[in-house]
Structure formats: structure tokens, C-alpha cells
Design a protein that fits this description.
Chains A, B: It comes from Meiothermus taiwanensis WR-220. Two copies of one chain form a homodimer. Chain A is of the alpha+beta class. Among the domains of chain A are: about 150 residues, Butyryl-Coa Dehydrogenase, subunit A, domain 1, CATH 1.10.540.10; about 120 residues, Butyryl-CoA Dehydrogenase, subunit A, domain 2 (Beta Barrel); about 140 residues. Chain A contains 18 helices and eleven strands. In chain A, the strands form three sheets. In chain A, strands 3, 4, 5, 6, 7, 10 and 11 form a seven-stranded mixed beta sheet that branches. In chain A, strands 1-2 form a two-stranded antiparallel sheet. In chain A, strand 1 and strand 2 form a beta hairpin. In chain A, helix 16 packs antiparallel against helix 18. The longest helix of chain A has about 35 residues. The radius of gyration of chain A is 24 Å and the shape is globular. Chain A starts with 6 loop residues before the first helix and ends in a 16-residue tail after the last helix. The relative contact order of chain A is 0.09. The mean pLDDT of chain A is about 95. Chains A and B meet through helix 8, helix 9, helix 10, helix 11 and helix 12 of A and helix 8, helix 9, helix 10, helix 11 and helix 12 of B.
Chain lengths: ~600, ~600
Amino acid sequence: MDRLISRRDLEFLLYEVLDVEALTQRERYRDHSRETFKDTLDVAYRIAVEHFATHNKKNDQEEPWFDGERVHTNPEVKAALEAYRQAGLFAATHDYALGGIQLPYVIATACGALFKAANIATASFALLTAGNANVLRKYGSPAQQKKYLLPQLEGRFFGTMCLSEPHAGSSLTDLLTRAEPQADGTYRLNGSKMWISGGDHEIAENIVHLVLAKIPGGPPGVKGISLFIVPKYLVHDDGRLGPRNGVRVAGLNHKMGYRGIPNCLLSLEDAVGELVGAPHQGLSYMFTMMNEARIGVGMGAMALAYTGYLHALEYAQTRTQGRRMHDKNPASPAVPIIQHPDVRRMLIMQKAYAEGCLHLCLYAARLVDEERTAPTPEAAEQARLLLEVLTPVVKGWSSELGIRANELAIQVHGGYGYTRDYNVEQFYRDNRLNAIHEGTNGIQALDLLARKVGMQEGLGFRLWAQEVERTIQASRDTHALRPYAEALEQALKTTAQVTQQLLNKAAQGEVERAFANSFAYLELFGTVTLAWLWLEQARKALGKEGAFYRGKLEAARYFFLYELDKVPLLAERLMRLDDVFLYPEQDWLTTD
Amino acid sequence: MDRLISRRDLEFLLYEVLDVEALTQRERYRDHSRETFKDTLDVAYRIAVEHFATHNKKNDQEEPWFDGERVHTNPEVKAALEAYRQAGLFAATHDYALGGIQLPYVIATACGALFKAANIATASFALLTAGNANVLRKYGSPAQQKKYLLPQLEGRFFGTMCLSEPHAGSSLTDLLTRAEPQADGTYRLNGSKMWISGGDHEIAENIVHLVLAKIPGGPPGVKGISLFIVPKYLVHDDGRLGPRNGVRVAGLNHKMGYRGIPNCLLSLEDAVGELVGAPHQGLSYMFTMMNEARIGVGMGAMALAYTGYLHALEYAQTRTQGRRMHDKNPASPAVPIIQHPDVRRMLIMQKAYAEGCLHLCLYAARLVDEERTAPTPEAAEQARLLLEVLTPVVKGWSSELGIRANELAIQVHGGYGYTRDYNVEQFYRDNRLNAIHEGTNGIQALDLLARKVGMQEGLGFRLWAQEVERTIQASRDTHALRPYAEALEQALKTTAQVTQQLLNKAAQGEVERAFANSFAYLELFGTVTLAWLWLEQARKALGKEGAFYRGKLEAARYFFLYELDKVPLLAERLMRLDDVFLYPEQDWLTTD
């Protein structure tokens, strides 16, 4: 068993729930059909199984190393990405004119989930390159696109994003990297960039770094940040590679997991950079990439949760241990552990988290397609805004639930799960990064509460609430779903009240107190969002025959009984507006 | 900074809260005083810092290995245990007649916490030996004690416990290891033993394995299990070592963490064993060791949580990043991250978990002293029973909260916490074992609900409730504590009702349904227990001057506002007695 992500479930979500087939009515996707989607997923699945999963453990055990000159990775990484390249996946979502096949983003996302479930580190080279390419597609000049975008879409160049510095992770205001303009129109960059995944390697012909830096004399803070292309090797206008640029590896970070992709401290020493777009607009350009990267992180967390769940499920179905509680006869045979209620609890939780987050990630990806191809500008703008609201949830809540799921996958395996002979301990270690990178979950929670739900006078929140409400209305007249619809309605009302109260408090100037509990808000919003999606799944499963659909209904039942029930508690914590987490005048956090 | 466990906090808990000094009134401890306790803790602290903490990272990076003949460990492990031995710590709690100093168990436990915080793997050699020695002290014959107990108390021999087999972890009923009686009164053992920590090494002169096996012809199931001493080297009656016994290493388990102590699959091949006590009583003897080991596991989880918290606290006090929310000036200096509410939340949670569990573990350890030295047999029996009830909570709930705490310690560090340059990622990996070994937390939850709280017609539960009630009564007339006392009173009532309803349901024969949610019961019971202990700490801190005491009051406030508030929710889940986790006639957990 491959145990990556259930193809059956992918098809259920794509076609029965999200009606992705409808996209083929849009001009951009008119050459596509359910068959082309299936073919693409088949190819992705095969490459994921044959080329990615096969070296996932080796990537963990033999991590990249730096010899002072070059960064070495396992040869299987390059081979896997070559298979990925040959399948045309680097360019898949792009225009025909750029060599792409105009594949819907939601299908590409489903493919990405398979690669991440198989080998999240190797998949990350490709996903970072895709994010980089999207920035250049949107904001690069024609000359820059020719030099740096096309080779990425061909899979010859890879991309990175260089935001953080050793002293500045969450706080981009404090970036110190400087970009001095030169007479020839280029810039010279100096500074240090930290946490650069794929920051150096020998896999691609070249590496295109997208670097945030400040042009001296610009405005202070984030308003003075500009975006630059800094290639590892300079590129002549005709595409030939020139000399090595002043980007050096100062060291590799040695991580707990996610080890197959080198993570670098890069030193920029008079590195030649090309300005992307206008000066001082770098942060807004980079948000294009960050938003996409954040969806990618949520998907990665979900993919690891999903594959961990399938590993745990198979183990629980085959490992025998003990007897049912009512069976006191020591001579009766041991039963598969899936029959023990506590093991079953741990499996159902994983199912609810993994399949719920897969739905969430695909829903978000479909919004990207909607934004791109909606029939009216208003509909496109609505999709964009809803995606803005959901991005911190996709990133933050999938990664919180993902780590819970992987923790349970280990627990189902008992002592075996704690050993490197099995796969689940690596998933757990790999997944622990997803709550941290691309903005910690604390940052995501603040982004959601302090920026997103209040955007455009609450329009973002209202769009989300409308979607939840639509599912409630579609369910309330069905006898089996009415209790869920009513519970969700109540939860939605509560969430709206909480949101209003917190935003009012902030508007009155008590910003820290209003937002001190933002993590609980993420928990509330994430839980209601997943309950909504589970009700959608239940709605589409109801009345259909077979264990698969029954499983969907039971997972929804679990979610409403054991997750959505937290809403009043979370709301109470938020509405209280206490000062437990506020920094006091005289701190008492001491150990002496 | 050593950042192990706060000495100030240890002293607060030992003397101000638990009044451990009162033990010096007991005959057994009359030579002791607060000064001898302090001296012992000073010695332990010094050895922990100088000999244990110093190789904790090396133990993780260079794990034990097996050359086909011998198991190799880092030389620092042996050196650390030699320092431990020379300080007399192996025998400390034992009688003068056995070479001990009759140190109270609670003080020895506090010392143990320091060693575990410094280096949980190296400390485990000593703790396993202590547990083994206690079984022999209670159940070994005088000859066995001379041959196997005394050398362990001298630190010359180390001990193990051999319960699990590859096919039988949680289910000891199914053990297959056989012990054939011989004409000379010894037995020959054959079988495989799995997950044996310290199962082989060259650190001690000899290893004393305590092995569960079945004597052919005995009763089926756990009633046919006997306990045997199986030394690595046979021991002559005069104490000289004889030839190597038939215990061989079949392989080492390679774990995610906790790597410094080898974990072995042992093969018994006509191994010579001596029966301990009577035949077929092995499990009850082994429970002596298991109970102690379970308290040790809880303590280990707490120790890792505590040291992780101190690491995160120091990091948060020194790392600067960003500005307060009301400060929009990018030119103002960055603040230490402890000032950001979400970071502060993560620190307060760690403090509440680590210091709360330290209290719980020391409370349990003090019950061991109480059982041993109480003025009346009734009081001793009460202490024993209360300890029985608390053991699964100490093990299960400390390890659940411990892993949460370490997860947060990483999160406070951001990306740095995910690298091996810092210590917290190792604590997290090490701590993940504690929810699994010595009975998974699922087993602990079942033990608590299905066995312990109903013991002796609910006497165990009532003893626990009496203790909680005592704290409530002592607090309710104090203005500042009254709201806590009332909340705890309500939570206690709820817990009693839930317990009664579940035990009634089980008595009516619906055992699986009654106990299906036992993990939620552990969560409920653990949360109320910690709230009780936090109220105790608050009671003893109230009215005293200084940040340390203020911190105790604030942590209690956090616990009552953000943890005890879960009680109604958990109670509702339990009272509902739904069938969500029961194995259905036709399973629907499928991915196809």
C-alpha cells in the first residue's frame, strides 16, 4: 500500500463536493475535462510513488551537507525532480504561451499534495520554484520573465524566497540588507538572509533568489522594502549563464525534520540584483508569493497528516493486541487494535483532521482558479477576498491539526511508532516545521483577527459567513443533517458576535487586549470552518451507498460532537478580554 | 544559566507547600533535616549540571550501537553514573543496613527530576536500577538480595525490567516466554523481550534483568505469569561473576529521541533464571516496579517540560523582535518577545504545566514516604490507595502536558527552536516517548477509569476527593481565593457525578460504552487534579512578597481561567455515552 492520500477521497472532494469539473466551462480551461484531470493526477501519483516516496527516509537520514564550496543533496532528489520536470509539472498551471497547459490550480494543488505526502522535502524544491515563478509572472518585466521565469517553468532554474535575516524573522520592518543602485540600472546587495530553503544546491542549472532589501534613502519600516532578483549565476540577455554572483552559503541549518532540502544562511556580498517592479513596493509583491507559500504550508501539513493517518489505519487493521473489554477469556484470539475504542478514537480524529484539511486546502486552491477565471470582476474580487481571509486558516489551522494527527499516528503504533523503522515519527518531525515557517501560527492568528476579518469593513468576514450560511441552508431541511445545521448556525452566530466585540475593542484603542487571545480566535475560526466543510462533505455523502460515504458521515458526526462543541468555551475566553497574557508593568515570570 | 529546574521552586514546593520537613519527625527519617535535604539536592544539582547535562546532546547525536557482540555507549554516560554512584545516590532511599542513608523518597524524587532535566537517557540507567532494586528489596529472598540487590545499591550492577515481547506490548496475557524448572531449583528461560531499556551495555559489571515468563502448566493469561531474575553474567553465591548467561541482544531499536540509553530486543536462549517469590505471582510483583516506573515517567515528562520552559523563558527575555501593537514607529527599538501576548501565553502555559506537574510528581512521591512511615496502618493504607489512583494521572497527564509544553518551547524559539543548535527540539523528541512507554496513555486512562477510581467500592476516588475538598475548605474563606475554591468545588462535584454514571453503566454490563471515552476521563481528572494543586500553591503564595509568589498566583489564575474551564465540556462528552468510538458491525474506516 502506498498510503499517500486516498485517490478515492481526492475524487470525492474534487468532483462530488467542489464540482471542479465546472471549471472546464471557463475559457481558460476549455481544453480540459475530467479525463485530463485524471491523467494528470495519475502521472503525479505514479511519480510521487516511484520517485518521491522511495527516498523520503534516505533524505531524512542523510541530510544535505556543505563542503565549504558546494551544497550536496542525495542524487535521488535530482532524479525525482527530473521526473517531475519531464512530466511538465513545473509549468502546468501557466499559459500555453509560457509553455504551460493551463491546468486549474486546484488540480495542481491536488498533485502537490501527493508529492508532499510522499516526500515533503523534495517536493518543496518544486513548490518554492512555482511560487517564485508566480511573482515573476505577475510583476517581472518582459526581459526578466524571459531570463528568469521561463527557465523556471522549464524546470531548469529553481527559485527561492529570501525574506528573513538572522535578527529579523517575523519582523520584516527591521531588515538590514541594503541594495545600492548602480549606473547600469542594477543594484548591489549586501546583507545576510536566514532560513532560505533550497538556498543552494547543484540540482538546477541556476537558482533565482527573490530578495527583500532596502534601497538607502527610502522610507523607514516595511514601506522602504524593495524586491530584487538575485541569481546564483548571472544570466546574459541571451540566456547564457555568466559568472557566479555574490551569494554565498554561510552555513546550513540542521533541523529536527524536513531535512531533505538544505536550509541556508546566505551571505550577499556585492551581489548583483535586478529590481522587480517599482522601488519600495517589495512587500506587496512578496505577499503574492507568501500567500501562495502559506497555502502550500497548510497543504504540506495536511499531506503529512493524511499519509500518517493511512499508515496508522493500516497498522491498526493488521496489528493484533488484546481482546475486547467484554471478553475475559485469555485463550480467545487477540483482535486487531482498530477494535479498541481508544485506538478508534485516535483514528477518527486523524481522519477528521486530514480529510477536513484536504477539503479546506482544495477549497482555497479552487478560489485561486475562481479569482483567475470568474465570469465577472466582482466575483473574482470576492474570491480574492475570501482567499485572503482563509489563507491564515489554511496555513495555521492545518498545521496545528496536522501535528496533532501525526502525534496520534505515532500513538496508534505504540513503541514501534517511536522508532525509525516505521515512517510516522518522521512525518511528525517534518510536520513540526509547518507551524513555524512562512509566518508562525501566532502571526497567522494575528493576521486573521487583526487584519483579515476586519478587511473592507468586515466584508472578508461576511463573505466567509455567507459561504457557511449557504451550507447551513442547504442542509437544514434534511432530517439527518438538521442538528448539524442548527449547531453550525449557532456557532456562526457566536463567531460573528465575538469578531464584532474584538474589533470594536480594538477600534476603541485597546489593541493589545483585543488581540491578546488571537490564537484562541484562530482555534474558533478554524473549528467553525472545518465544521462547515464537514457538513458539506456529509451533505454530498448522504444517501449514497457504501462504506466510503458512511465513513464521511461518521467523521462529520465526530467533528460536530467532539470539535465544534468547543465553540462556546472559546467564545467565552475571547469575550472575557482578560489581561492574563498582557505584559505587566513589573514582570513576575521569574524562576528565582 | 543551567535551566534545569528552578531550585527556588523546588524549595517552595517541598517546604512551603508539601511540608516535607515534617517527615523528619518520623522514626525512619529522624537523622534528616532540611539541611541534609539541601546538601543532597546541592550534590545532585552539581552532578546533574557537571556530568549529565554536558553530554545530553552528544547522547542524542551519537547513539548507542551494537557491534554484534557488545553494545557501545558514550564514555560520558559511564562517567556520569560513576559520579552518581560515588555520591551514594543508588542506595540513598534504602535502609542503613543496606548501605543507604534513609533519604525520604520525595527528596530522592526531586534529585531524580534534576538528573532527568539534565539528561533523561543517562538518568534512566539509574532510575531503572532503582526500580529493579525495590522489587528485590520487597520480594527477593535473602540470598537473592545478597547476590542481586546489594550490588545494585552499590551501583556495580544495573537493573532492567523485561515485560513486553514483539507481539505483546500492552497485552501481557499473551506473553510467550517460557521458564522450565530445573532439578537444581533454577529455571531455563526461552523467548524474546522487546523494548528493553538498558538491556545491554558495558557500563556496569553486570545487568540484572527482571523477566516475566510463564511456567508450563500454569494458569492461562496473566494469572500464569511468574517473575524471574536473569543476570547477564551468572553470579556465584560468593558474589563472584560466572560465565555469560543466555541473554543476547538480537538488535537495538532506533528511536526518534531518548537515544542515549540503548533499547534492545533481547533473546533468551536457555537463560538461567531464579524465580522471585511464588510462582504465578509475577505480575503483582512487577506492578511494584511498574508503578514506580510510571511515576518516574511522569517525572521525566515534567522534567523535560520544565527545562524546556526555562530555555524558552530565557530566550523570550533576551530575543528582541518587533514592537508592541500600539507602537507604529518603525524606528523605535525592538522589544524582547516576552512582551508579545502570544509569546507570553505560550510561556504561561508552560509554567502552569511544568510547575503544576512538578507539584503532582512530588505529591505522589511524598505519598510513597507516607505509605512507608505513616503513624498508623490505616494512614499508610490510605496513602497507598491514593497513590494507586494518582499513578495513571502522574504518568498519563504529565506526559500529555509535557509534550504540549515542549511543543510550545519550540514555538517560542521560532525557526531556531527547530534546529539542533538549540536544545528544545531534543526535549520534544525525548518527551514523545513518555506518552508511550510503561503503558501507553490510552492504557493509563483505562487504568484510571476502569480500575482505580472504582477500587474498594470507590474508596480510591473518595480519598482523592477528600484531599481536593480539604484545599477547597482551606481556601474558601480567603477573599482572593474564593472564586477558585468555588470553581473547584463545582468541578469536583461534576467529576464525582461523571465517575458515578460511568461506573454504573459499566456495572450494568455496557463496559465498552462506559469506558470508550476513558481518555477524556483522564483529561477531566488530570485537569481537576492540577487545578487542586494550583490552588494549593496559590494558597501558600498568597500574601508573600516578591515576583516569585506573584508568578504563582498568576499561573493559578491562568489555570483556573484557561484549563479548568474545560470541565463542563469534558463532562458532557463523557455523560453522553455515545457510540462514536465503538467498533461497528461493518467498519466504514476505509479509504477506497
